Amino acid sequence: MGIVAQDAIKQFQALIDEVDEPLQNTFRNMHQGYPTETLMRFLKARDWNVAKARKMLVDCLNWRIQNEIDKMLAKPIIPTDLYSAVRDSQLIGLSGYSREGLPVFAIGVGLSTLDKASDHYYVQSHIQINEYRDRVVLPSATKKYGRYIGTCVKVLDMTGLKLSALSQIKLLTTISTIDDLNYPEKTDTYYIVNAPYIFSSCWKVVKPLLQERTRRKVQVLQGCGSDELLKIMDYASLPHFCRREGSRSSQNSGNGTINNCFLLDHAFHQQVYNYIKQQASNLESVAPIKQGSFHVDMPTPDPEGTKIAKTIESEFHKLEDQNRLSNSLNGVSINGD
Questions:
Q1: pTM
Q2: pLDDT, tens digit, 9 for 90 and up, residues 148-178
Q3: Which CATH class is domain 73-277?
Q4: Is there a smaller number of Cβ atoms within 10 Å at the N or the C end of the chain?
């Protein structure tokens, strides 16, 4: 670490030491014993500008207090049928670990419909996965590998991506904004696999809009991506949609359902479910658990995020128009024959 970085961290730490006790408490819960590494994440997210990093972190701590994020893992999505519906339509799972010990999160972007519950449930579910990652998965990996592990790898499956995904851009932008503002620099690399033409077309126009720091993290792989991914992880940690025999579908693997990390009965989701259930029972003696989603303040996307969302929307509409024109011409051709 350079002298400039060390000075920035010292300045930042001094400023955070001055905040009120409630903010200190949620900061301790957030950094999980690694305050310096946490400060570095916020500094990186603000290009090492201490004043901007301080504002970002204080805003994040206030957001955590106002929305009771520290209690998020004690707020189950109930009833069970609703939780199951959320899991079936918001495809995410932990498929394993890289050889460096980074958790590998698989995300079924193309086949996630996000239409079985209100937006608040999907936001709640997403934050719970984030919190479980930060409070349970990463500390466990740190202990297992004997060194600090504070980031993960994400493999995004674009199988099934359609123009209808346009209807979910607002929700996806909200979730992305929550991550950008409150969980910065938690992903080491994003690997895009099984990318159809619709993604490739959008990526060409979106890529230049991303910050250089973000662009460097995104790698679009050929096909199901197994050849490249096997350079950083063992076969057992490959998401099921990256295995050649099961690469055609995010939800159905040629190896059967045992390797499908999206399913509710997968070990990861059972662990998350049981953990939340246990935390909830600990709180239930104080106050009964209420049915209903845990509403979180929806952040306003920053100008950059809004621009990207509008660009994607515009690109989708262009593709939609091209498809209509193509179908219309095909119809004329058929009738002409």
A1: 0.87
A2: 999 999 999 999 988 776 678 889 889 999 9
A3: alpha beta
A4: C
